[in-house]
Structures are given as structure tokens and as C-alpha cells.
Amino acid sequence: MADNDSTQSRRTVLKRTAAALAVGAVGVSGVASADTDDDPDVAVASNPQNVTATSAELGGWVDDLGYADSIDVYFEYGEKGTGLTQTSDVKTFYGRPGLYGFFEIEVTDFEPATTYAYRVVGEASDGDVDRSRTAEFTTEP
Predict the structure, then answer these.
(1) With 50 as the cut, is the pLDDT of residue 102 above it?
(2) 41 in Cβ contact with 23 (< 8 Å)
(3) Which one of 54, 95, 122, 139 has the fewest CB atoms closer than 10 angstroms to its CB?
(4) Beta bridge partner(s), residue 116
(5) Largest alpha-carbon pair distance within the chain?
(6) pLDDT band at 83 (very low <50, low <70, confident <90, very high)
């Protein structure tokens, strides 16, 4: 990766991290590690990246795993007003409980000029499930 690409990538991660923090990705105290329950915590990033007529990179945040060893994260989405009837590919995070961070999943089955609702779902290996708030975006014409 070229230095310029690496710098751009770091800037993108920092911008998305700030966006996730702004939408409440961490606990009420504002510190990710302040969460004291045993449930996983996930949040949706406020703006998808690289939105086209048929695809978008949806972003989310894994705050912690609770007491689980792993967590599967994915997006539920659908046309605004019709329900969240579709799901994205799954990403799995492994490791001890703690802070994980930002992730993206590209979805490629959108319709042009359509508004979609979406949210992050985190299914932890201990059976706990967390869903983020719902966000919206519109695909290009």
C-alpha cells in the first residue's frame, strides 16, 4: 500500500470512529470500556461510504463482546417503510472481551434512487444479541 493510501485509510478510520462516537457507539459515559454488563454492544455508523446506484459500504462499531468469546456482526436492511427484511454477509470477531472498533460490510443488491433503512446486529457466542439504532441512506440514481 502506498504511503498516500495508508494516510487516507487512517484518516477514513479516524473520521468514521468520530462519527460512531457521535452517534452513541460507546456507553453513556463516553468511554467504551465503561460498559459493565455482560451483553455485547454494537452501533451503526452514521454515513455509508462509496454509495452507488446498487451498492454501499455499511459501517458499524463493535464496542465489546460482553462475556462472549466471539461475535458475528451483520446488517439488517430494507427499503424504508417495508421492514428490515434482508441481511448482509457476516463478519466474525474473536478474542477476549474488550474494545474492537469499526468494521465495514459491502452490500451490492440495492436499487437505484431508493432510500434504505439499516442497522447492525451482533450475535455473541454466548447467545446474547444486540441491535443498533436504525439509520437511513439513499442510493444514487
Answers:
(1) yes
(2) no
(3) 95
(4) 79, 137
(5) 45
(6) very high
CA-to-CA distance for 83 and 20, rounded, in angstroms? 23
**What's at 94, amino acid-wise?**
Y
- Gap between the Cα atoms of 13 and 118, Å rounded: 20
* Burial class of residue 136 in the structure, from the number of CB atoms within 10 Å of its CB (0-12 exposed, 13-18 middle, 19+ buried): exposed
- Give the whole-angstrom CA distance, residue 140 versus residue 26: 31
* Counted domains in the chain: 1
Quick one: how far is CA 4 from the chain centroid?
Answer: 26
Is 70 exceeded by the pLDDT of residue 84? yes
- Asked whether 58 and 101 are in contact (CB, 8 A), the reply is no
Q: What confidence score (pLDDT) does residue 65 get?
A: 76
Compute the C-alpha angle 87/90/93, nearest 5°. 145
Query: Mean pLDDT over residues 19-39, rounded?
Result: 39
Q: What is the CA radius of gyration of the chain?
A: 15
DSSP string, 33-59: GG--SSS-EEEE-SS-BS--SS-EEEE
pLDDT band at 99 (very low <50, low <70, confident <90, very high): low
Q: What is the CATH number of the domain that holds 69?
A: 2.60.40.10
